[in-house]
Design goal:
Beta-Lactamase; Four Helix Bundle (Hemerythrin (Met), subunit A); five-stranded antiparallel sheet
Length: about 350
């Protein structure tokens, strides 16, 4: 048996009482989950972990790399070698912790009223991450530094045990297949952690990304990112501290947000060609930009200017659908005086 396996098994044994207490507490809170499902928690978790690309499969593979890195770092410290490079690599655990914090803890808490993991594991994640960040800022790697590193590695190793013996089994017996598929698709937005490739989960890919929210009301506009009423959407767009104009793929003005404008946009300009809103000397430039967007030669054109004594950034941005097809142009006008004031203050 390897030194790693022995050390890892010891960590699991130390947390077994905590694991059992946690699961018993969840059974009391959630009688709707049959006791036999909790009794078979390891089997349920192992079944999901064995699926290539499943979120639990990815999390466990990341844990294996972290555990090996911890063991390597201990060996270097014991040999009197500097472990700064290993710490830098180890800090990628922040990606792993961020994914758990965004995708697992809130779902357990909000949908299943299981508050334990978010109550204490999330806090431990932050403490481990913060300590590693603090150690990386220290240039002198003396004995005190090594001892702090050994301590935080021990906590990270214990977290591996808590994940695989507390968190993941609880998730396995509660989350539905649809929720796991949603977690899978959301997890693709996170950076690769410890070089562990994001394998494809075939079942989730065959059904595509997460479906529209089932709880949307009849009067709501439903989008992949959520749902809201038309009144909420209007208020949201008007709250953005910028002037927004949308021109569709037929070069027709379709939308202006409301509020004070640097560049006046009369309501009567809606449903007219965008060329009619520009003086003759500017029209060729606008036509060229939109044509570049349409053909894919460019995706954005920033234009800095002074307007009424204020610095203004005008960004022309190609709007594309999920297949990359051109659907229109966004003109985004932002007053940049606040940026000038900020940098003048910080550099003064």
């Amino acid at each position: 048996m390897s030194k790693f396996t022995t050390h890892y098994d010891e960590k699991i044994a130390r947390t077994e009482a905590e694991v059992q207490a946690m699961l018993e507490k969840q059974q009391e809170l959630h009688e709707s989950v049959p006791k036999e499902r909790y009794a078979a928690k390891e089997a349920a978790c192992a079944e999901l972990t064995d699926i290539p690309g499943h979120p639990l499969n990815t999390y466990v593979r990341e844990n294996r790399v972290l555990a090996a890195l911890i063991e390597k770092t201990r060996d270097k410290i014991a040999a009197g070698l500097d472990a700064g490079e290993e710490l830098m690599k180890m800090r990628q655990v922040s990606i792993h912790y961020a994914s758990k914090g965004d995708l697992l803890y809130p779902l357990l808490d909000a949908r299943y009223d299981i508050t334990g993991p978010s109550g204490f594991l999330w806090t431990e994640d932050d403490e481990i991450r913060d300590e590693m960040a603090a150690l990386e800022k220290i240039s002198v790697h003396d004995e005190a530094w090594n001892n702090r590193l050994l301590d935080v590695m021990s906590r990270a190793e214990q977290m591996i045990s808590k994940e695989e013996n507390i968190l993941f089994p609880i998730c396995a017996v509660n989350f539905t297949p649809e929720e796991w598929k949603g977690i899978y698709h959301d997890s693709l937005d996170y950076d690769t952690c410890f070089g562990v490739d994001k394998a494809i989960w075939q079942d989730a890919e065959s059904e595509g990304a997460a479906k529209e929210p089932a709880l949307a009301a009849d009067d709501e506009i439903v989008l992949p990112g959520g749902h809201m009423t038309a009144a909420q959407l209007r208020a949201l767009l008007n709250a953005i501290p910028a002037e927004i104009t949308f021109v569709d793929d037929q070069n027709i003005n379709r939308f202006f947000n409301e509020g004070p404008k640097v560049f006046k946009r009369p309501a009567m300009a809606i449903d007219r060609e965008v060329w009619t809103c520009h003086p003759p000397k500017v029209e060729p430039m606008v036509r060229a930009i939109i044509e570049d967007f349409r053909t894919g030669r460019r995706d954005e054109v920033p234009v800095w200017m002074e307007k009424n004594g204020r610095s203004v950034l005008v960004r022309y941005i190609a709007v594309r659908d999920t297949e990359g097809g051109y659907v229109g142009t966004l003109e985004y006008v932002q007053d940049m005086e606040m940026a000038k004031a900020h940098f003048a203050k910080t550099q003064g």
